[in-house]
Amino acid sequence: MIDVNNETDIDVEEIEFSELATFVLREMHVADGAELSIIFVDEPAMEQLHIQWMDEPGPTDVLGFPMDELRPGTPDEPTPAGLLGDIVVCPTVAARQAETAGHTAEEEMLLLTTHGILHLLGYDHVEPEEEKEMFALQRKAPADLPRRSRLGGPCRVPSCWR
Predict the structure, then answer these.
(1) What are the binding residues for Zn(2+)?
(2) Percent composition of the chain: helix, strand, coil (DSSP 3-state, to 5)
(3) What homologous superfamily is domain 2-143 in, according to CATH?
(4) How confident is the model over 120-160, as pLDDT tens digits?
(5) Which residues belong to the annotated binding site?
(6) Residue 7 confidence class, pLDDT cut points 50, 70, 90
């Protein structure tokens, strides 16, 4: 179950983030029924979390809070359903990063959501090899999903990342 909660005044197409998370979890062979929360917060709330959990000042773009320490499965042996955890995204920080990166704020938030899911599944980017693996997976994310409600049609999620 994917729960998306927008606690900001910024418009977020929640269905896109739910569909992206579902897609990423399937590609990582996590059984349907795994629980994940994606929460969008403003800068003061993100700063508070950043200080409380990372002892770092100022707001950040994304934080992940793993629960059951689920790991990616395989096609033959998917990870059983469980409580994956929470991802917290700050849309205003994402918008600033997107401007620098030359893409939309929505694309940045989709990228950050994928990044957060990978962290919850045990990926990290402290060591160069870890970073290479994690960012390669992250780049495969369908960050250009069409907006369902604005286009009036179904979301066209790619069948695979390859």
Answers:
(1) 115, 119, 125
(2) 45, 15, 40
(3) Metalloproteases ("zincins"), catalytic domain (3.40.390.30)
(4) 999 888 888 888 888 878 777 554 344 433 333 333 332 22
(5) 115, 119, 125
(6) very high
